[in-house]
Amino acid sequence: MLTPGPDHPITIEPAKRRWRAAFAGHVIADSDDAMVLREGSYPPVIYFPRDKVAMEYMSRTDRKTHCPYKGDAGYYSVLMDGQWAENALWTYEEPFPAMEQLRGRLAFYTDKIEVYEVDDATVNAHHPVGERDVDAIVQHTDTGDGHSQRDHWKPNVETPDGGVR
Question: Is the pTM of this model over 0.85?
Fold first, then answer.
């Protein structure tokens, strides 16, 4: 186990804005609680909380790698709408102590999954449509397999007494 230092700097800090990941035309991760890892001269890597990633489209693979600074990484592939991205995301389930902030988070290979920063004010511009904003409505649209991208809303009307007339 190696510790980051001047010869190999690694920093992890909360993202200042909201981040998303998309695959096959669908948002598969969306978080305003992402972490940005900067390591040496490598491009920054965005780590999403696992509960903000659509894990139902992910399958664990046998691939494993070891980083002397972060620990052992496990990998997932993505299958959505007939499109496949093998070993497209990784996670450090038991990170080394210096990288504890990565626990419970996943990162995506940006050559396989689109990862992008979002201006929350633009996405959630709060243009009300009834009691719902535009982004909330988009998140409840069909994913392509007959299911919405988010849990269904509770009905805003009740069935009349005696049932349907």
Answer: no
